[in-house]
Structure formats: structure tokens, C-alpha cells
Amino acid sequence: MNENDSKQTIKKTIFSKKSIPYLLLLPAFLFYAVFWLLPVLSGVKEVFTDFDGNFTLLGNFKLMAQSDLIGPAIFNTATFAAVSVMLQYFLALLLAVLLPIMSSPKSLIFQAFL
Predict the structure, then answer these.
(1) pLDDT tens figures, 11-66
(2) pLDDT of residue 101
(3) Would you state the pLDDT for residue 84?
(4) Which residues cross the membrane (predicted)?
(5) 34 Cβ neighbours under 8 A, 6+ residues apart
(6) Distance between CA 12 and CA 19 in Å, rounded?
(7) DSSP calls for the chain
(8) What is the rounded radius of gyration, in angstroms, for the C-alpha atoms of the chain?
(9) Which of 26, 27, 60, 64 is nearest to 43 (CA)?
(10) Could you state, in order of their start, the residue ranges of all structural domains in the chain?
(11) Contact by Cβ (8 Å): 50, 59
């Protein structure tokens, strides 16, 4: 077997019918790894370390629980979540009721919401 035949065999192996779907999925997996997996792993690393990079286990959580700011932070987060969900719900309901009344099914605005 000469060198040219081995290159042909490698090309056939890489681009076989079984491997093409995996090659087509490769960009999606790379995108997933770079923009979701790496930030999540970085966040997990930061949760368990201090500013100097020393491992603290649950020290950061203990510090957070002892802080005077945790109560207002939880209250503000819950308030923001409740208000934003209610506003989105009522706005969507209002649009769903008003859209058929104010426009015909052939109008551009009606079709944009479909």
C-alpha cells in the first residue's frame, strides 16, 4: 500500500456516511461549549474561590448569608420577577384580545403576531 492509497482511505473514513452527521453537528457543539458550558464552569469555579483564587468551599455562601444586604436583595429580586411576569402576562392578554378587533387577518400587523 503506498502513501496515496492511505490518504484515500483516511479521506473515505472521515467523510463516510456515518461520520457526516457528526461533522455537521460539530459547529453546534463548539458553539454550545464556548457560549454556555465554559461560562457555567467558570461561574461554578468563582463560587467556590475567593478573590485570590483560593478554594473556600462554602465560605462565600456563609459570607453572603451573614450580610445585611441579603434581605433587600431577595425582596428586590422577587418584586422584579413578580411585576415583570404580571406585566408580560397582561400585555400579552391585551394584545390577544385587541388584535382581532382592530385589524383584519390580512393586515401586516396581524400576520406579524402569528
Answers:
(1) 666 667 778 888 899 999 999 999 999 999 999 999 999 989 899 989 999 999 99
(2) 75
(3) 99
(4) 20-38, 73-99
(5) none
(6) 10
(7) --HHHHHHHHHHHHTSTTTHHHHHHHHHHHHHIIIIIHHHHHHHHHHTB-TTS-B-TTHHHHHHHH-TTHHHHHHHHHHHHHHHHHHHHHHHHHHHHHHHHHS-TTSHHHHHH-
(8) 27
(9) 60
(10) 1-66, 70-114
(11) yes
Distance CA 81, CA 73 (A): 12
Residue whose C-alpha cell reads 390577544 in the numeric block: 96
Which amino acid appears at position 103 of this protein?
Answer: S
19: Cβ contacts below 8 Å, ≥ 6 apart: 13
> pLDDT tens, 49-59?
998 989 998 99
Question: What distance in Å separates the CA atoms of residue 52 and residue 38, rounded to the nearest whole number?
Answer: 20
Across 17-38, b (16+ Cβ under 10 Å) vs e yields: eeeeeeeeeeeeeeeeeeeeee
